[in-house]
Structure formats: structure tokens, C-alpha cells
Amino acid sequence: MSVDNATPGMDIASPTNGLSARVNSNLSLSISPSANLHSSSASKDGSRWPRGYSATSAAKQLKPFATEDIKILLLENVNKTGRDTLAAQGYQVDFLKSSLPEDELIQRIRNSDVHVIGIRSKTQLTSRILREAKNLIVIGCFCIGTNQVDTQYAAKNGIAVFNSPFSNSRSVAELVIAEVIALARQLGDRSNELHKGTWNKVSNGCWEIRGKTLGIIGYGHIGSQLSVLAEAMGMTVIFYDAVNLMALGTAKQVPTLAALLEGADFVTCHVPELPETSNMIGPSEFEQMRNGSYLINASRGSVINIPALIDAMRSGKLAGAALDVYPAEPGGNGDYFTNNLNDWTEDLRSLKNIILTPHIGGSTEEAQRAIGVEVSEALVRYVNEGATLGAVNMPEVNLRSLTMDEPNHVRVIYIHHNVPGVLRKVNEILGDHNVDKQMTDSRGDVAYLMADISDVNATVIKELYQRLESLSCRFLLLALTSDMANIGQARIMTRLLY
Fold it and tell me: Which residue in 185, 359, 409, 491 is the catalytic one?
């Protein structure tokens, strides 16, 4: 059946197979296991497949040129759904339940020639670590944030970074709502007292949350969901964000942080870790908050000045607080939340009506399953097809999958510095062949080219690789003999999938 006769917009899932990896100096053809993947390309007329493409065509099994089988290192107990998705591709998956110290992680990377690393929020992938990962092509952050990765260094070395910006939003929002109620009713203190055998039935300083005002700092995926939940509980919602956003329900955006702090009974933070958000809530901000108000932080540990929070709690300025994140956090479970971690930890632990949780905002079965699927599928798409959709540090480039109706094709992926003259030289090489489709885009100093070339064999593939790899030397020579000194070594990484 021809696709042109199919209903427009129909979502047809087509499996595709293959592996890909960073090209190294071993110019041999790899024998890699097959893999399943979905293509989401759509043609201009709205149908799922391009004109002339048969919906019954089997996907072509892509293999990496000049690379052994893909090796993956997963740290921090990545959810089983993610592990299973990667293992199903035939990748070699090494799984650890905890993070590793920097030196130990470097040694493991050196010993195993890792192509893919998967982490959560504790592992710090610094430039020192990434410099040692000679075969690394992609990093998967099985969480919302990517501040634990030197994404700029990764991009400049051709290493894509993916995360899961949405999957745990509901879990975090529900935790915050629970903490609002728990703080208003002093549930943490009453529970601790009864665990110690003390019956202390009181109502003084305990409140309903109905009719109270919730102030949300950062009205993104989590903040906006929290807004809906809070209104359903009868709360009034105000929010502050760096950009103007459409409010959900009857929530109202306020023009300044000070206006939010002055107008809210409960203040909750949902912002990324940036220089602008470091110590965003400090002594002066606590002074602006209402007497007897509450503070919740489930975003990043650097957002709150903890010593100032301790002072505000002791003075009675705040009636309660809930923290799920901290400036420094342990690398694994155990008795580590002491002054050896942060010198104010024991003062914080001594406070009344303060909820302290170990960074569990997104730690639900539902969220971790969703994150496992989302990030692992992004890794599979990148490794198998070179698609960068959703990468946080690379241009977003994607081409439809090659199929069995397109034999003797090779997919060229060329990551290079975004400087004049590079594309012309690359296209001079590609121009000697039949380029079926091509796409390129840039992001800052890094550019990403993807092209499918037909009518090739093993000899042509090897020649293509050698010519593209040689561009670094050729551009370096030009830089030394002409005014093209801004080019230097143009190539960052070459990958061929066939």
C-alpha cells in the first residue's frame, strides 16, 4: 500500500535497527547486534512518511563504522526501564547502584572504553573526567537538571547530553503540596514526638491551607502543575518568573520577587541552578517575607542561604520550612548528613517544624520509570541514528530513518566548530557522491551536519571517513599558511552509520 493513499497525520510506528558509535582509528567494519527504534519524521503534506515511501518497508539495520560494540556505564541506580531499553539494543551495559568518586570514575572509564554514560543528580561529570573519556559520544542525565555535567566542554568535544525535563514534574509538585499541608499542621513534629512516646495534642499555630496564598518562584513545568494542585486545594496562587508567562486557572504573575515574598503565606522555589539564582533567598529576602510564613525548596541546593534560613527559623520569622536539596549532598545512602558535609547541618537538624528529605522530589516509581524510558530512548536514537532532538548542548538535527528500500546507503555525521569555510570543504567531499538528504544546524560554537549518501560500498565508506577525518589537518595547515587562523582544527567528531 502506498503511503500517499494513507490517511494524513496517521501515527505509524516503524521499527529500525542498528548501532552507531564514535569513529576511532580502527578502520574495520563492525559486526554489531541489531536494535529497535521508532522514527517520528513527517513529510510536508502532513503524512507520517515521505512521498514514495512504503509504509511496509523494513528499516535498514545501521551499524557503526570502525567501532566495536557500544559500551554503556550506568551509575546511581538508574531505573530498570532504562536499563532494559538499552540492553535490548544489544549494548554492553555496566550498572552500578551508587555514584563514584572522580578518580575512581576516571579509572573505570579508562579501563572500559565507555561510549555512553548514564547518571542521575549526584555524579559530577567535570571536564577532567570527560577529558579522559576518549570514546564517549553521549551522556544521559536520568533527571531534570544537567548542572552536574560540564555541558559546554562536552559540546566542544562532540559529546551530546540528554535529560528528562518533564517526567518527574508531577512527583515534585505532589511532594510540595504534601509539605505545605504537613508544615501548616506541624505534622513532622507531632510524628517525631509520638515516636518518642510523647502525646502532644495541640492546635496552636496549626492552620488549614484553604484561603492561604502560595507564592511560586519559577512557573515552569513543576511550578505550573503545582499551581493547579494548589488552587484545587482552595489556595490563592501568585508566581514570579524571569519571563512573562500565561497563568493557569486564576493564578497571577507578580512583577518582582519582593512582591511575591511580601504577598505569600507559603513560598516555594522551582528554579534552575544558575549564577542568577545562587543564594536567591538570603537575609534580605527573609526580611521581606511575612511573619509566620513558610519556605519550601525542591529545586537546587544553592538557591537558599541555609545559615540565613536557620536564623529566620530561630527568630520566629518563619513558622516552618521544607528542604529537599542542599548545597552539598552525599554520594550515597548512609549516615552522612552531618557537619562533615555542611558545617551548619546539625543546627539545621535541631530546628522545629522543618522537613528535611534526601533529594527525593522525583523519586517515585512512576517518575523514575518515565525518566528511564525517556532518556534511554533518546540515547538509542542518538547512538543508532545520530538524532539530536532534545539534546541540551547540541543543535537539534534529525533525518528520517533509512530503510531496506534504500540499500547501500551510509549516514554521515560530522560535528565541527562553527567557523567559516568548514561546510564548503565538507560538501566538496560529499559532492562527489549522491547525497539523498542533508541537514545542518549550529548552536554557539558547535555545528552538526547529518547526510545520507547512496550507492556506497565498504571501500567508499572507508574513503569518506578518511577524507572527512583529514579535514582537521587540512584546516590546521590553512590556519598556519593564510588568514584563516580562526578555523584551526575544524573537525570535532566524525561518525558513519551504514
Answer: 359
Catalytic residue flag (residue 195): no
Query: Which comes out higher in pLDDT, residue 281 or 406?
Result: 281
pTM of the shown model: 0.78
User: Quick one: which of 333, 356, 380, 323 has its CA closest to 140?
Assistant: 380
Question: Alpha-carbon distance 452 to 440, whole Å?
Answer: 12
Per-residue DSSP letter, 84: H
What is the H or E stretch that residue 414 is in? strand 410-417
Annotated active-site residue 400? The verdict is: no
Cβ atoms 443, 155 nearer than 8 A? yes
CB-neighbour burial class of residue 488 (10 A; exposed 0-12, middle 13-18, buried 19+): middle
DSSP string covering 95-153, please? Answer: E-SS---HHHHHHHHHHHT-SEEEE-SS--B-HHHHHH-TT--EEEESSS--TTB-HHH
- 61 membership: H or E segment, kind and range: strand 61-62
C-alpha 103/C-alpha 108 separation (Å) is 9
Residue by residue, what is the 3-state secondary structure of 464-482? HHHHHHCHHHHHHHHHHHC
- Which pLDDT tens digit goes with each residue over 31-47? 233 333 333 333 333 33
Distance CA 266, CA 213 (A): 6
Write out the three cell numbers for 19: 548501532
Active-site residue among 300, 400, 417, 491? Answer: 300
Contacts of 495 (CB under 8 A, 6+ apart): 20, 21, 22, 23, 64, 65, 137, 386, 412, 413
Q: Could you tell me where the beta strands, DSSP code E, fall in 255-327? A: 266-269, 293-297, 318-323
Angstrom distance (rounded) from CA 461 to CA 44: 31
Calpha distance 324→360 (Å, rounded):
7
Residue 233 burial (CB count, 10 A):
14
User: Do 149 and 161 form a contact (C-beta atoms < 8 A)?
Assistant: yes
Sheet-wide strand order for 318-323: 252-253, 236-240, 213-217, 266-269, 293-297, 318-323, 354-356
Helix ranges, 4-101 (H): 80-87
Instruction: Identify the DSSP state of 210.
Output: T
433 flagged as catalytic: no
Q: What is the pLDDT of residues 138-175, one digit of tens each?
A: 999 999 889 999 999 999 999 999 999 989 999 999 99
Q: Which of 102, 329, 406, 469 is catalytic?
A: 329
The partner residues of 445 in beta bridges, in order of sequence, read none
Residue with cell 579508562: 110
